[in-house]
């Protein structure tokens, strides 16, 4: 039974002393304010939670992001439009291809060239985006399982992820931060034989997901940490601006790819999985099924992939290929002008959003007519999720924080902008 609390005691300012000379009358009450993170392993060095607890029960939680110091939006204002792409990679560094796509489409909307992006480039963007979504969901499930004590699925999922990472590296030369997409299309076409290697990698991912589901989905320990834990209602989720798998876990079937189709998503047959309770377990199941749906989209996109160019034929928009810049004086001048003066984007503003791995990822851009963004504002899906974490875990146990935080899949790079 809880002890009676003195009316004059301060529940939020408690100092625990180790002085053995203190008597029982001088000891603080049961309520205790403690730090969780940013050095806590589950907080990944980027989040600090100030907890007020009574025993193991959370009475209050003040969630603080900001320990990564990314500064993306100010960085973008000091680079030309093309140079912003490597910065977008560092937003959600688990699935950077989708950051590339979202930013490129916002610039194209502002330029008025969205309709001129070649068909083949649109399909390639879909393929790399869905590969990135699969990787992101696998990492989320892997890390969540590991931090709840299931290390074996982590090894399986990371091994399956490496197959896609090999393909990303072959495609753009970088394993983690890709910078492959360009304004008006993509950097270059797919390497010879790349699609065959992609087809060979998909069954390995499917096998890994089947093994992971066998180990986790009906596992009593995993279910005990997730079923009916941190349940969220659809009304709560919408009020806090949730999107993505976390919103869909509450039963709301909102997906930008279906509700506001972009690129060529309206040409594919895929389902939007939803949950029923909005608990941690539903968030896990939704991601599991979304991996299968993404693989289904990849298969269709590969089969439908048309031929043709992969970037607009306009030297005022498209970055000059490296070989052209190195081999001709005209190419070198074009490359120099594009990077030092930047694309001359007409003055105005535009907002474009896509369905990223964690939900709606939007870019709001303002141009003053120069070669650099006057303002680049990002709407990251993770920020709304983490903003509500204190409310979600209030009244739960300390042990519930880790699975709840993990299955929200907070990515520090896009929260701390």
Task: Describe this structure as you would to a colleague.
This protein is of the alpha+beta class. Helices cover 45% and strands 12% of the residues. It has helices spanning 72-76, 85-89, 96-111, 119-147, 151-172, 194-216, 220-226, 234-239, 244-248, 256-259, 280-304, 322-327, 329-340, 381-387, 389-393, 401-408, 412-415; strands at 31-36, 47-54, 57-65, 181-182, 185-186, 348-356, 359-367, 373-379. The strands form three sheets. The protein has a three-stranded antiparallel sheet with strand order 1-2-3. 42% of the residues are buried. Residues 1-27 have low confidence and may be disordered.
SS class: alpha+beta
What is the averaged pLDDT score?
Answer: 90
Q: What is the count of β-strands?
A: 8
Strand content: 5-15%
List low-confidence stretches. Answer: 1-27
Oligomer: single chain
Helix count, DSSP H or I runs of 4 or more residues: 17
* Largest sheet report: 3 strands, antiparallel
Ends apart, CA distance between termini: 45 Å
Q: How would you spell out the order of helices and strands?
A: EEEHHHHHEEHHHHHHHHEEEHHHH
Estimate the helix proportion, in percent.
Answer: 40-55%
Shape by Cα distribution: globular
Radius of gyration: 24 Å
| Strand line-up in the sheet with most strands | 1-2-3
